[in-house]
Amino acid sequence: MTRKSLCIILAVVLLGASTSGAFAQRIDRGYGRLNERVFAGKGTFTIGGNLQFSYHSMKDYNFIIVDGINSNGYSISVSPHFLYMIIDNVGAGFRVDYDRTYLDMSSANLSVSEISMSVRDYLLLSQKFSGALLLRPYIPLGSSGRFSMFAQVELGYSNSRLKNTAYIASDTKGTFTSRNMIFVGVNPGISAFLTNHLALELSVGVLGFNYGWSSQVHNQVSYGSDGISNASLTVNFATISVGLAYYL
Questions:
Q1: pLDDT tens by residue, 198-218
Q2: What is the pTM of this model?
Q3: Residue 34 counted as domain residue
Q4: pLDDT tens column, 21-78
Q5: Which distant-in-sequence residues (6+ apart) come within 8 Å of 237 by Cβ?
Q6: Three-state SS annotation for 223-248
Q7: How many domains does the chain have?
Q8: Residue 226: which CATH number?
Q9: C-alpha angle with apex 200: 10 to 13, nearest 5 degrees?
Q10: Residue 125 CB neighbours (<10 A)
Q11: What is the CA radius of gyration of the chain?
């Protein structure tokens, strides 16, 4: 999904939220307090998540200064989450993530002025597992109970493993990297009920702090390691996420 389409979805949801007081129908999810600003009542369970998949195949493809690209690959990301409303409009729970990327590049040529480079028989495979504890307060919009903003706070850990190598018969040849990360983040978003129980959710990363360390081995001979930490306070469009959640 492109950034343009995500912006269109956000604009539509925000437009609906801003006009909900005028024409949105009131919905009843069994709380019995329709005159109160309750989006998700105490004791409600929420199950949701995101799923992304992409695949590409290139044959003699040219891109700016890179030509003769012959490659194929895919990426998949699965991110289910679970929340329990400990009080009205405040949920606590957890999220797990799995990401996998595969790239098989048989050839690519780079040429700039008198400098030329080429890649032959390159293979990359990466996998990442992560989990996070979540706290999500809701701010209902209007009195219909259909729209709400939220600010999700998360604390988590991730481990990823990456292998890149040329085509070699042995599984021990190549560069193997293991990365560990502890992260804290704040992801605001908006949620809109499509039915009495099913909601569309959109969120974006704004505040984050990461601390990570990694180890690397090349051909089971050379070893290395590094550490990194960073903090950010900005709208990160790379973290825009659209998903569905079921409230019961």
A1: 999 999 888 889 999 998 887
A2: 0.74
A3: yes
A4: 433 445 555 554 544 678 888 999 999 988 888 998 888 888 777 788 888 999 999 9
A5: 3, 204
A6: EEEEEEEEEEEEEEEEEEEEEEEEEC
A7: 1
A8: 2.40.160.20
A9: 30
A10: 16
A11: 23
